[in-house]
Amino acid sequence: MRDKLNSILKIATNEIDGANTLEQLNDLRVKYLGKKGEITAVLRQMGSLSPEERPVVGKYANEVKEQIQELVCDREKELKQKEMEQKLTQETIDITLPGVKRNIGGLNPLTIVKRKMEEVFMSMGYEIVEGPEIENEYFNFEALNLPSTHPARDMQDTFYITKEFLLRTHTSPVQIRTMLNKQGKLPVKIASPGRVFRKDDDPTHSPIFQQIEGLVIDKDITMADLKGTLLLFAQKMFGTNKKIRLRPSYFPFTEPSAEVDISCIMCEGNGCSTCSDTGWVEILGAGMVHPNVLKNAGYDPSEVKGFAFGIGIERVAMLKYGVKDIRDFYSGDIRVSKQFIGG
């Protein structure tokens, strides 16, 4: 029986060395080491041996079995290493090939302008504050000196959701909310960017557009502070040579009120088709905060003053980049954004 085990070991060694695949090796593992394998078959014949021979043959059978297991393990490592080398050879990347060019995205010009405007106001000490796009009538109208009977409500075609709630027509409600949260504390100095909604749709108006409104409340605030702020804003956005002018106007929430013009960025004030040969282009509305608005927000108009202004982000972008139709910003045409890759 010892000779039989030696013969099995010799044949197994040759066959395991000759195995070329893991599948072949596994078959040999089963052939020699499985429950019905050749080693097991030898062990089942142990009953025919004398009691003295059984432990000797049993021990040798286990040694042969261990040797075959080691041969299988060693060959398995060799085959796996060979298989890995073949995969690496087949999957080699030719680094001399030209790379695939990736498309680079670009920000919408409105995003670029909005971020720049926020940076300008933050550099002047303003806090950026946002508010809800769905407002109630009180914050959107009444607190801003626009009661239900006020004729100025007709100036803003409003999208109503219910009788009480609407899509805000300006970001001015953020000013009221901020002042109420301050509970009379000074100073108040905020800029509130965001989307607003009105029933407009033509080359210079859109039913959805963006504003950034500013509010400053403190003691001894004057119209001169407002003009200086807006002049600095215009120069930082359009160039240090820019000038502004204020024309009397009317807004329910400011008194006095003004329309603010900037010297034309196309002709430098000499007159062209963009400015209708006047040398000036309207850019925003502003004024001193109305006493009724201060009262509604918990401030005493005899003690504090303030100014407010509202700027259309699309309006600034159209002037800055020479865009004629506001709807181009919302068309979804990727060619618009491609022009602004890199900022």
UniProtKB/TrEMBL annotation:
Primary localization: cytoplasm
Subcellular location: Cytoplasm
Needed co-factor(s): Mg(2+)
Catalyzed reaction equations: tRNA(Phe) + L-phenylalanine + ATP = L-phenylalanyl-tRNA(Phe) + AMP + diphosphate + H(+)
EC number of the protein: 6.1.1.20
GO biological process, one term: phenylalanyl-tRNA aminoacylation
Binding residues annotated for Mg(2+), in chain numbering: 255
Keywords: Aminoacyl-tRNA synthetase, ATP-binding, Cytoplasm, Ligase, Magnesium, Metal-binding, Nucleotide-binding, Protein biosynthesis
The family this protein is said to belong to: Belongs to the class-II aminoacyl-tRNA synthetase family. Phe-tRNA synthetase alpha subunit type 1 subfamily.
Assembly mode: Tetramer of two alpha and two beta subunits.
Name listed for the protein in its UniProt record: Phenylalanine--tRNA ligase alpha subunit
